């Protein structure tokens, strides 16, 4: 807990990160373009550096959390910044190509670079609920793992710098799919006078039940073999038709179920109707533009 750490960027997230380091007892140096955002942290014991370069030089580890990768490049590419020998962990959100590119760019300037993704909101930072993913050279992660633990549940994914961003966007796909499925069901039930609050606990249990299928289905995907153990895709598609027809009949939006059925119909047209649902990975694994 006496390892010094620097935080560059004191937006909503950066302030939470710096605050968690202070709470854990780390000597914490901060810098932000708008200096006033450091006031509360300085009152809590943080040191405000006069420049980004001075901030990076103050600690063996620098955490960067800005709006986007353009801002990161602008900041770390500044005249006063010397990255040689510094370790930078960039927790700014972005895509995997940006992460790999930023890694090359920082390494060319002599930095050790890890890319990360924060799957949490600022109030959760510093608790086990804050999942923070890291990717890049393992030794660089392990060298700072104990310090990073102040932020939450820290996980190392692998040496490919793009992995943290990929997991991050995969998590977005999960989040929106679960939420949209719940909203579809809520819209249906409201037509019969069932409140959202009444349906929510039922929906929660359904979502958890479906989540339990994932490990077994994942084995089918990795094996590239989809025997219909519990249900064939063509049976599922008949149920999709019920969902679409019910939605249309009660005047609820049917776009999402139609989109899902269109994917399944293509798989059936390709001869996969007697296989199990995860065979749709083949539809998800190739690009297709337009509706
Ligand atoms: P804010 O908008 O609150 O803060 C943005 C920060 O970036 C500020 O410190 C801002 O400085 C700085 N900044 C922007 N452009 C520049 C620049 N050109 N040069 C220097 N500094 C710059 O955003 P958040 O703190 O909420 O988010 C930061 C990152 O964390 C984002 O990538 C976001 O996706 C990610 N994240 C945020 C979550 C959240 O719930 N807030 C959840 C998960 C990830 P200034 O104060 O001077 O404007």
Automatic annotation (TrEMBL):
Pfam families per the UniProt record, alphabetical: NAD_binding_2, RedAm-like_C
InterPro entries given in the database record: 6PGD_dom2 (IPR013328), 6PGDH_NADP-bd (IPR006115), HIBADH-related (IPR015815), HIBADH-related_NP60_sf (IPR051265), NAD(P)-bd_dom_sf (IPR036291), RedAm-like_C (IPR048666)
Signal sequence bounds: none
Residue ranges crossing the lipid bilayer per the database entry: none
Residue intervals of the 6-phosphogluconate dehydrogenase NADP-binding domain: 5-158
Annotated family: Belongs to the HIBADH-related family.
GO terms assigned for molecular function: NADP binding; oxidoreductase activity
Taxonomic source organism: Jiangella alkaliphila
PANTHER family linked: CYTOKINE-LIKE NUCLEAR FACTOR N-PAC (PTHR43580:SF2), OXIDOREDUCTASE GLYR1-RELATED (PTHR43580)
All copies of domain NADPH-dependent reductive aminase-like C-terminal, residue ranges: 160-285
Keywords: Oxidoreductase
Name of the molecule in the record: 3-hydroxyisobutyrate dehydrogenase
């Amino acid at each position: 807990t006496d390892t010094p750490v620097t935080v560059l960027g004191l937006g909503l997230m950066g302030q939470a990160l710096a605050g968690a380091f202070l709470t854990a007892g780390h000597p914490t140096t901060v810098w932000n373009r708008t200096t006033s955002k450091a006031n509360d942290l300085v009152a809590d014991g943080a040191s405000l550096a006069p420049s980004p370069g001075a901030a990076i030089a103050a600690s063996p580890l620098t955490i960067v959390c800005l709006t986007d990768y353009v801002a990161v490049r602008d900041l770390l590419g500044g005249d006063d910044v010397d990255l040689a020998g510094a370790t930078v962990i960039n927790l700014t959100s972005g895509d995997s190509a940006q992460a790999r590119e930023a890694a090359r760019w920082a390494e060319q300037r002599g930095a050790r670079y890890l890319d990360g993704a924060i799957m949490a909101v600022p109030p959760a930072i510093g608790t086990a609920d804050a999942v923070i993913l890291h990717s890049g050279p393992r030794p660089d992660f392990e060298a700072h793992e104990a310090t990073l633990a102040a932020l939450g549940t820290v996980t190392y994914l692998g040496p490919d710098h793009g992995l943290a961003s990929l997991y991050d966007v995969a998590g977005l796909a999960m989040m929106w799919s679960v939420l949209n499925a719940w909203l579809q069901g809520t819209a249906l039930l409201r037509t019969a006078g069932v409140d959202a609050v009444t349906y929510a606990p039922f929906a929660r249990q359904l979502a958890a039940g479906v989540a339990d299928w994932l490990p077994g289905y994942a084995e089918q995907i990795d094996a590239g073999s989809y025997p219909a153990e519990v249900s064939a895709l063509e049976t599922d598609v008949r149920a999709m038709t019920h969902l679409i027809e019910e939605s249309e009949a009660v005047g609820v939006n049917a776009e999402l179920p139609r989109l899902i059925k269109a994917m399944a119909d293509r798989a059936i047209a390709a001869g996969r109707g007697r296989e199990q649902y995860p065979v749709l990975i083949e539809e998800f694994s190739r690009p297709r533009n337009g509706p």
